[in-house]
Amino acid sequence: MADLDKLVEELGKLSVIEAAELVSKLEEEWGVSAAAPVAMAAAAAPGAAAEAAEEKTEFDVVIKDAGPKKIDVIKVIRQLTSVGLKEAKEMAETADTKIMEQVGKDAAEDAKSKLEGAGAAVELA
Predict the structure, then answer these.
(1) Cβ-based burial of 119 (10 A; exposed 0-12, middle 13-18, buried ≥19)
(2) Minimal CA–CA distance to 71: which of 88, 84, 83, 87?
(3) Measured over all CA atoms, what is the biggest interatomic distance in the chain, rounded to whole angstroms?
(4) Which residue range is the domain that position 34 belongs to?
(5) Are 90 and 78 members of one domain?
(6) Which of 100, 68, 94, 70 shows the shortest CA–CA distance to 82?
(7) Could you tell me if 78 and 96 lie in one domain?
(8) Number of domains within the chain
(9) Are residues 97 and 118 in the same domain?
(10) Do 87 and 34 share a domain, yes or no?
(11) In this predicted model, what pLDDT tens digit does every residue of 37-68 receive, in sequence order?
(12) By C-alpha distance, which of 114, 1, 109, 115 is closest to 124?
């Protein structure tokens, strides 16, 4: 059996042109097409993930932890939403609670900065 680690190391040394030639030869030899795996690899590329993140237009504001200044966080939650004191307190005390759902980027970032200014740990999802 071939040493797979050594084979992977050797394949890593191929230039782009050599890799394309290898693909062609393997397709001829085995009668398969590498088009689907190549397309999937392109979809999973880091650049594609960054583009997808840039395209996102609606965010959820999720409070992870109210921090030491829970009263200040409750006040900010009430300013940002139309909930009462009891609901705002429950939101502040419950981890991973959505404070705002499907809001624009500017509104989400504004809410995040206000909540973080009050001492909360916040995530945009």
Answers:
(1) middle
(2) 88
(3) 71
(4) 4-53
(5) yes
(6) 100
(7) yes
(8) 2
(9) yes
(10) no
(11) 444 455 555 555 555 556 688 889 999 988 89
(12) 109
pLDDT over 70, % of the chain:
80
> What is the CA angle 115-116-120, rounded to 5?
80
Q: Cβ(99)–Cβ(87) under 8 Å?
A: no
3-state secondary structure of 18: helix
Q: Are residues 18 and 49 in the same domain?
A: yes
pLDDT higher than threshold 80 for residue 69? yes
> What is d(CA 82, CA 3) in angstroms, rounded to the nearest whole number?
64
Residue 71: predicted pLDDT: 92
Q: Assess whether 75 and 49 both reside in one domain.
A: no
CB-facing half-sphere around the CA of 45: CA atoms within 13 A: 9
Residues 65, 45, single domain; the answer is no
Which residues are CB-neighbours of 95 under 8 A, at least 6 positions away? 63, 64, 65
Cα 40 to Cα 49: distance, rounded to the nearest angstrom: 13
